[in-house]
């Protein structure tokens, strides 16, 4: 449905140097798929989206939409945005504030390059208004609408064009957390119900996991890994992907040569075994990672067990997140709310070999950083220095 092949894009910086926005980016989006470009600011995700839309021209490469070449550097094909079978929803919504909801949706159908007869425009407006539940707001000025309603109008305007591809550039980033959570589900349901192919840009990992059929994680203009949300979360191929998707604990170590199934990593807390994956380094310095929810409590020391003490806890509603410290490292574990651990309690934490991952790299300090309670939301915390 949509393919990008070996896309390169550089920009000139103020100091005269060149910034590489896209570095040999290739991808393939299937028909009716919800494909998410995920990454931090400057990773190249919006540049990729704008290249698909025709709003930004790569230096080289090839893009096809619906079987038609819309950009090809080798033979000078550059189809303008208005002639591509796409519609785009911007972060700012880009609505006309002096118009009401109806006229915002209908305007491209009446005046744009893809204008249609009046009867057809009325049919399309009626369809998307019904789909997005905007009938009560149809004649309200968009300036009087809430952020969530404005987002619906922007989406309705895009869908009224009946594009083959819907492109969305962080459309929920201006909304509050509760509304964002609700609209994530609604957006996914709407695009699925009408069977439209969607490419969605976000820096929000939760948004990507909830909405994406497939996610492409980007950094420094490259796609590091793409796959289903479950695969990226449980089988990250690179250290950056592991850090960017969800919470992860890290321990520096050295992996020893072993058999094809298991590997042994020598760490400051003793040797830890893990099940090899295709991306597990054969030997050398590595960073071992494990998710807080995968750590298990046991009654005594043993293989793959770390002896530690509870130093802080944070209530998350459905669970507690604890910081545990040994003499060598600090890490986090997640436990059900019915299983409360007292501050200062000595615990034995078992790391199942299947839950451990190893990534190529040197010393990683992230496991030793203080437990930062300010980044958690909607809970209460305690630690030995602040609790009475």
Describe the structure.
Helix content is 22%, strand content 35%. With 388 residues, it is α+β, with helices and mostly antiparallel strands. The strands form four sheets. It has a six-stranded mixed beta sheet, sandwiched between helices. Strands 16, 17, 18, 19, 20 and 22 form a six-stranded antiparallel beta sheet that branches. Strand 17 (305-315) and strand 18 (319-325) form a beta hairpin. The longest helix is centred in the middle third of the chain and has 18 residues, at 177-194. The protein is globular. It starts with a strand and ends in a 6-residue tail after the last strand.
CATH topology of the largest domain: Rossmann fold
Parts with pLDDT < 50 across at least 5 consecutive residues: 363-380, 384-388
Order of secondary-structure elements: EEEHEEEEHHHEHEHEEHHEEEEEEEEEEE
Shape: globular
Mean pLDDT: 90
- Report helical residue fraction: 10-25%
The tally of helices reads 8
Question: Total domains, how many?
Answer: 2
Determine and state the CATH class of the largest domain: Alpha Beta
